[in-house]
Amino acid sequence: MNELLTILFGATPIGEVRAAIPVAIFAFGFAPLKAYFLAVFGNLLPIVPGLFFLHYISTYLMEKNYWANRFLSWVFKYTRDRYRQKFIEAEQQHHHHHWREFWRFMALMAFVAIPFPITGVWSGMVAAFVFGFSFWRSVAALSIGAAISGLIVLAISLGIVRL
Questions:
Q1: Residues 90, 95, 96, 100, CA torsion sign
Q2: Which of 32, 29, 8 is nearest to 20 (CA)?
Q3: Largest distance between two CA atoms of the chain
Q4: What count of Cα atoms within 13 Å lies in the side-chain half-sphere of residue 128?
Q5: C-alpha dihedral (116, 148, 85, 134), degrees to nearest 10
Q6: pLDDT, tens digit, for every residue of 25-47?
Q7: What's the rounded Cα separation, in Å, for the pair 17 and 35?
Q8: N or C: which end of the chain has fewer CB within 10 A?
Q9: What is the C-alpha separation between 78 and 21, in angstroms, rounded?
């Protein structure tokens, strides 16, 4: 039962691995590696369905509601144009056009890997969707970021790293 609770804590939008790992170690008495793997597994569960849901619900709302269409179209255009412009400027400075996807991947992964409030898989899914990142690269970046975040939280929980 406690294993399932750890997975569910890991899957929640607020707690994610930041809550699941300490609860699993200190409240449930799990070994650190067991706590890590259960929490990260739970954190990975919502990624694919969440990205599909965001795409489906935005498409549905844009087709069915005039105001939702206007708002979402504005959000997508504004964020994607602004984001694209920053990368174009960076590419012109450094002349590395082929690095764009790599830096997009790294930025999303780093955003998810930092175990602070408001960063994590759930907000990373929204960012990846709004900025128009490719589906499978988003899944990979979110997954690696969740694993790194779990390692950081585990190290803090065990006292290896102090804040």
A1: positive
A2: 8
A3: 55
A4: 36
A5: -120
A6: 999 999 999 999 999 999 999 99
A7: 9
A8: C
A9: 37
> Cβ(115)–Cβ(153) under 8 Å?
yes
Q: Which residues contact 113 (CB under 8 A, 6 or more apart)?
A: 144, 145, 146, 148, 149, 152
Supply the pTM of this predicted model: 0.85
Token pair, residue 133, equals 């990142």
Q: Could you say which DSSP state residue 99 is in?
A: G
Nearest to 78 by CA among 133, 124, 131: 131
What pLDDT, in 10s, does the model give residues 2-32?
Answer: 999 999 999 999 899 999 999 999 999 999 9
